[in-house]
Amino acid sequence: MTASKIKxxxxxxxxxxxxxxxxxxxxxDDFEIIxxxxxxxxxxxxxxxIHPDVVLLDLxxxxxxxxxxxxxxxxxxxxLAVLILTVSENTNDLTECMRIGARGYLLKNINxxxxxxxxxxxxxxDSVLSPExxxxxxxxxxxxxxxxxxxxLYETLTPREKETLTWLTKGVSNKEIARALDLTESTVKVxxxxxxxxxxxxxxxxxxxYAIEHGxxxx
Length: 219
Known about the structure:
The protein is α/β, with parallel strands linked by helices. Helix content is 52%, strand content 13%. The chain has 11 helices and 6 strands.
């Protein structure tokens, strides 16, 4: 009896990188590449139809990046093993992705054997990190905790995200916000996810309270 192969979905906006990665992974008898997508939104739709075991997900992509796509991938398939495969060595990206539920965080300069073994470990339920990122994570945990500067966090929001935050204080739905701002409902959803991440908040209610406490509902 032949063991089933690990079904893999690649989500990365660089065609040449995806081609090289596909070529590398297809040399392994136990791997099968069942799909490719060039951005997060396309990847979410594809994952819902082809049901991969593992997703290799880039962070910085047009239309929808990996940080926004990750929670949506896991919301429909909570047991999905998502490995972030990125050039970003930013520890905030690392901690945010692992907090959301990524199974691993790997840098694109990783060696081949480590990548192949990481995919197999992720399928078995293990968490995997590039050695460089493990060191960065440990150093961050050892660093003293500095109180968050809420004004500085607020200024990281785009104008649209600030508008969306103000609308959240009214207790309205994404559909109503979309109608008021002349946007699609899915775009508003992305704005909400982005502003929650940037403000280190975890719900629309927390965002509304944040906005009211800072007088943003009166703007």
